[in-house]
Design brief:
single chain, four-stranded antiparallel beta sheet, 4 domains, ten-stranded mixed beta sheet, 19 helices, 38% helix
């Protein structure tokens, strides 16, 4: 059974169960500035899970293409992809645990034909701190459905994943209780991180067992469903939204409880062919087969390269088919990164000429069943991708020419210059030197790293100057609040409106007061999303760096945020938070700031109110 068949079977099955099929959202959400891409099946449904009425009723289903670039460095193993398709169904105050668990088990075993003996599930063990009980209801339902298939499913209390790595599983166990790091859903993570006012609840994940021989005990510990090993793979998650976090931090039961189910299409397809390698399913294997043909090399001996290429071209195709073009900003930058990483890995396979013309039509055929409502520019995708391939290969060719101009002996500083000035990657410089017999200095790698480090340190040097714009003093806590204010502005621009500017601030060692332009009172959802976004950036422990630039360069090239360009000096200081090439925040500012966001603590918005006509005010603290 290929992935397209499974997708259709799922939708047909859900329709039989009373669900209405809704159109998937595009990867780039027009009305959701909180994220670059649709990263889950439930993301477009969030307003309805928060209480808004859906025009198609209380039982919904779809198959949602999704993209998560945070997984990009993990691509190359058997199960991580940046692009995936999420099968979803939702109950908005309709059915709850029993019907959901029974339906999904029936779909897996009857419709897809999975062996119920290879299905393992997890439930929430409870949280004494908040008085949230153990989800014995879900576990007992699972026991019943297993028993109806002739399986006496035993229950095990595991707790944390690390506990499971030491304990493993015992004979007959199919149902496992884990803590809120594994089996609690909220937009913030575990119970402690659940945003005030948000719906949340326990979840029950479903895993497929690929066999004891797939577990690397020395590396990952004993096998259990939440292990990092390859034996078990999650194929679906059922979130039971039965709580809301109250203003005092406690959790109260919702009157109308929701179900949010998501199952990875590629992973269910992998289970259906009993392969722990998702790159062998029908949405990916034809790409691998063509790469083997073009390169003359085998997948078994070049798995990392071929997996990265197959995944990244697939993602770039979906973005191009929605009208995006490669660029150095936001969505376009992500698309360019996917394509260039794929081209570099193709070079590793010895594919030195253009190859997208042979790969993209295969991807297009794989996604022929997706609706035109989201793939609005299918006919342009190949042309857009070929243009980027040609441009990048010219960049690489220029880098090779510059390398040869440097002579017959290079050091790490030379290689750094090639990367910094011409975008020619370190690995390709080294490979070209070996290929052409160009001598490399003995410590070329250390020299390159030192040059790279020196560049970073120039940007990250802490400011020693005084900042007069709204700070009470420049003590440690006030400096933290100042940095948090930059994150707050960036979050408001991302979530509420990109046109938001700072209209005033007052920062002390106890709190920040921040005024900004907007034409409406922020909704509870917007406030929660802004607060959550700031805390995500704090948790990511992003670097905070600064440098001095000519005013025109800061404004026109760096696109730094500033309000008084006519009054700024010719040379000014610009603070950047996050990756320099794709920053979270970049503002003209005199400082001072912390050196990394992880020291700030928890950001909490205490109040949002009117300050003047068209101006709102936020008061917030760091806890």
């Amino acid at each position: 059974m290929d992935a397209n068949e499974i997708r259709q079977k799922f939708l047909d099955f859900q329709v039989k169960k009373g669900h209405k099929v809704i159109q998937p959202a595009p990867l780039v959400l027009e009305n959701d500035p909180t994220t670059l891409f649709t990263g889950s099946g439930m993301q477009p449904l969030l307003p309805y899970l928060l209480g808004k009425q859906h025009k198609d009723g209380t039982r919904l289903t779809d198959s949602q293409p999704s993209l998560r670039l945070q997984d990009i460095e993990d691509v190359g193993d058997p199960r991580h992809t940046t692009v995936f398709e999420m099968l979803g169904n939702w109950s908005l105050g309709d059915y709850f645990k029993e019907e959901q668990i029974r339906n999904f088990f029936e779909f897996l075993t009857k419709e897809i034909g999975l062996d119920p003996n290879k299905i393992y599930v997890t439930c929430f063990i409870g949280n004494e701190k908040y008085g949230i009980p153990k989800d014995t209801e879900a576990a007992e339902i699972w026991q019943k459905v297993f028993k109806e298939s002739g399986i006496d499913a035993k229950i095990a209390d595991i707790g944390s994943a690390s506990d499971g790595d030491k304990r493993g599983i015992k004979e007959g166990e199919h149902i496992f209780f884990y803590d809120d790091h594994e089996n609690w859903w909220s937009r913030g993570g575990g119970c402690d991180s659940t945003p005030i006012g948000d719906p949340c609840g326990p979840d029950s994940e479903v895993f497929y067992d690929f066999g004891e021989d797939k577990q690397d005990v020395e590396k990952y510990g004993l096998a259990h469903p939440a292990s990092d090993g390859a034996r078990f793979m999650e194929i679906g998650n059922q979130v039971f939204m039965q709580y809301r976090r109250a203003e005092d931090g406690s959790f109260v039961e919702l009157e109308k409880k929701n179900v949010d189910f998501g199952g990875g299409l590629e992973r269910i397809a992998a289970a259906s062919i009993n392969s722990f390698d998702v790159f062998k399913v029908s949405l990916l294997k034809p790409i691998i087969d063509k790469l083997e043909e073009i390169s003359g090399k085998s997948y078994d001996n070049n798995t990392d390269e071929m997996r990265v290429i197959a995944d990244h071209i697939r993602g770039a195709y979906l973005l191009a088919s929605q009208g995006l073009v490669p660029s150095n900003k936001a969505h376009g930058y992500a698309m360019r990164r996917l394509l260039r990483r794929a081209i570099l890995r193709a070079l590793d396979l010895g594919i030195s000429s253009n190859f997208l013309a042979e790969i993209v039509p295969i991807v297009a055929e794989n996604y022929a069943d997706l609706p035109d409502s989201i793939l609005t520019h299918r006919e342009d995708a190949l042309r857009v991708m070929l243009k980027e391939e040609n441009a990048f290969r010219q960049t690489l060719n220029k880098g090779i020419k510059e390398l040869h101009k440097m002579g017959d002996s290079l050091n790490g500083n030379d290689i750094f210059k090639l990367q910094d000035t011409y975008g020619f990657p370190f690995e390709l410089s080294v490979e070209e030197c070996f290929r052409e017999g160009i001598k490399l200095s003995e410590n070329y790698r250390e020299e390159f790293e030192a040059a790279l480090k020196e560049q970073r340190e120039r940007s990250q040097t802490a400011s020693k100057g005084m900042f007069k714009g709204g700070l009470e003093d420049h003590g440690e806590q006030t400096v933290k609040y100042h940095t948090a204010t930059h994150l707050l502005l960036a979050a408001l621009q991302k979530i509420v409106s990109p046109d938001i500017c700072q209209k005033g601030s007052n920062i002390t060692a106890e709190r920040v007061r921040f005024d900004f332009n907007v034409d409406h009172k922020l909704t509870d959802e917007e406030i929660a999303a802004v607060e959550n976004q700031v805390n995500e950036w704090i948790a990511a422990d992003l670097p905070v760096m600064f440098d001095e630039y000519d005013k025109a360069y800061a404004r026109d090239t760096l696109k730094a945020h500033g309000q008084f360009w006519d009054k700024y000096p010719d040379v000014l200081k610009v603070y950047t938070i996050g990756d320099f090439d794709n920053p979270i925040s970049r503002e003209v500012c005199g400082g001072p700031h912390v050196e990394h966001t992880g020291v700030l603590g928890k950001f909490v918005i205490k109040k949002e109110e009117s300050s003047a006509a068209g101006i709102r005010r936020i008061k917030a603290v760091l806890e």
